[in-house]
Amino acid sequence: MTKNVIAMMNHVAAHVANNMSLIENLKQYAKENHVPIIMDAGLSFLLENIKKYQVKTILEIGTAIGYSAINMALAGANVVTIERDEKMYQEALKNIKEAGLEDKIKVLFIDAKEAFLLVENMEFDMLFIDAAKASYQKFFDLYIPLLKKNGIVICDNLAFHGLAEKNANLDNCSRNLRAMIRKLNNFKDYLKSNENFSTNFFEIGDGMSVSIKKS
Ligand SMILES: C[S@@+](CC[C@H](N)C(=O)[O-])C[C@H]1O[C@@H](n2cnc3c(N)ncnc32)[C@H](O)[C@@H]1O
Predict the structure, then answer these.
(1) If you take atom 22 of ligand 1, which residue's CA is the nearest one?
(2) d(CA 45, CA 51)
(3) Is residue 184 a part of any domain in this protein?
(4) Residues within 6 Å of ligand 1 by CB
(5) 105-109 vs 78-83, strand pairing mode
(6) What's the total number of domains in the chain?
(7) In a domain, 21, yes or no
């Protein structure tokens, strides 16, 4: 093996090791600061689907600190991700820079309900919805026109910690929480009845769905 090849392999190994420790640090930061990020099982499922459907371009709704976006970019995808909270946005920019992924991830600081004009000329292989649960249907309806043929939509937190499952006891939940859960359940029914998509639900992580655009 030539010196150049060995140097390149060392460089790649150092890059992978740096990113692994960055990912662990992000998880730790999220835990300490109560930032809701995707669960390990959910993330593995997301990455499996990126591979399975050969996803190259992703629109993510809900960046938080950039944890899922960084993982999806490390899996090879180009990601546009939308975040409305300034502290989260700044934290995400810092983490993406540290990961050396500024050319793979673009973060938009805006409410996703208002962001369509910023992305309307783009096309995506995948839409990943992971923001305010009460607005899932709005996000879905707004952004599916940007999905390519056979594109997929993945949604997280559809079980909402068990509260959005059948027969969940909501007696101790506030009125606002009950309203949010009702909207999330309506959205699941909407997905089931949407004839333009074929949707499967998975008891993985906090409940996930994969919807494949039919044409
Ligand atoms: C569950 S966290 C996202 C976690 C992230 N996808 C991950 O797994 O690393 C949800 C994020 O969505 C943001 N969010 C909620 N509603 C939003 C909206 N309407 N537009 C943009 N961001 C929103 C919140 O500020 C929060 O940071």
Answers:
(1) 83
(2) 10
(3) yes
(4) 36-38, 62, 64, 67-68, 82-85, 88, 111-113, 130-132, 135
(5) parallel
(6) 1
(7) no
Cα(115) to centroid(ligand 1), Å: 14
137 domain residue, yes or no: yes
Q: Give the chain's end-to-end CA distance (angstroms, integer).
A: 49
CA 157 to ligand 1: nearest atom: 1
112-161 per-position pLDDT tens digit: 999 999 999 999 999 999 999 999 999 999 999 999 999 999 999 999 88
183-201, pLDDT tens digit by residue?
Answer: 999 999 999 999 999 999 9
CA distance 15 to 174: 46
- Is 80 within a domain? yes
CA 24 / ligand 1 centre spacing (Å): 20
User: Domain with 196 in it: what CATH number?
Assistant: 3.40.50.150
Sign of the dihedral defined by the CA atoms of residues 90, 98, 80, 205, in that order: negative
Structural domain harbouring 142: 36-213
**DSSP calls for 122-155:** --EEEEEE-S-GGGHHHHHHHHGGGEEEEEEEEE
